[in-house]
Amino acid sequence: MINSPSVTDAERSRAIRLIKYLLFSATLVPAALAGGIALSRGSLRISEWLLAAFGLLIGQAGGDYLYYYFTHYHTDSRDAHTKIFAGWRPLFTPGWIPQQRTLLAGILCLALDALIGLYFLSRYGLPVLWLALAGAAAAFLFTPLMLRGLKEPVVFLTFGPLCLYGMVYVLTGDLSPRTVLISLPVGFLVTIVAYLKGARYRVEEENGSAIVMRLDVRILAGLLAAAYLSILAGVLLGWFTPWALLTALTIPQAADFTRKAARKKTIADYLWLTVAAQIVFIETGLLLTLSFLLPKII
User: Fold this and answer.
1) Which runs of consecutive H residues, i.e. helices, occur in the chain?
2) CA-to-CA distance for 28 and 36, rounded, in angstroms?
3) Which of 149, 231, 250, 258 has its CA 20 to 30 A from that of 114?
4) pTM of the full predicted structure?
5) Structure confidence by residue, pLDDT tens digits, 94-122
6) How far apart are the C-alpha atoms of 24 and 138, rounded to whole Å?
């Protein structure tokens, strides 16, 4: 951990705790969007939506436990954010779940997911099996792939196309590629959060009060541009309703954290920058969800 007179342990803990909870938006946002899509098509069954959303949430929690275990309790030097996010732990660890039991916790989460998958398999057939296997592979392989520099592509595919495609299928029975296209802005925005969390840094001052992030602002700007342009293209091509243009309301926030990413900052600044990216992701995802609901309401 970097010792800094300007960043107390309590302040760091508050930021990390908030980031930890907001990270579950990676599955909750696709779940909300899938529900909006299903409702717009007149096929939303609340019980099945809740079950599928719970399955996504448990799957993400299982992946967190496995990641924590296979990075030897979050101390692997190859993990770029190990030091800044020192103290991060999965939910209920170490309170209810001892650190050495996180492997078992991860396996149990995925086993529960498998039971949920069996239910949907009985209703919707073989495509559910392939989607479930892809999700399980992402959970088990995330750590080794991340340590090989593939964190962002895995996050993009898992929490973008895979989550949304799977949920839309079990809610509507639709296997068309259109769902993958709808998932693109979600994938791009969640990848920004992954990129920020995995950023490397160097300490600029001897006392560690300031750091310089090795962030490529061009990557952040490119991902943001891809997200908003994919929404615009979706509106023009009919993937989204025109109400999706309301997502432009989050562009000023996105531009603000991109500018801040280029500046020298304290550890606290960096942690809250990550929070800002998560908030933009959540707000944009909810506005996309609303864009499917408004035509039914108005």
Assistant:
1) 9-22, 25-40, 46-70, 102-124, 126-146, 151-157, 163-172, 178-197, 217-237, 251-261, 267-297
2) 12
3) 149
4) 0.89
5) 888 998 899 999 999 999 999 999 999 99
6) 16
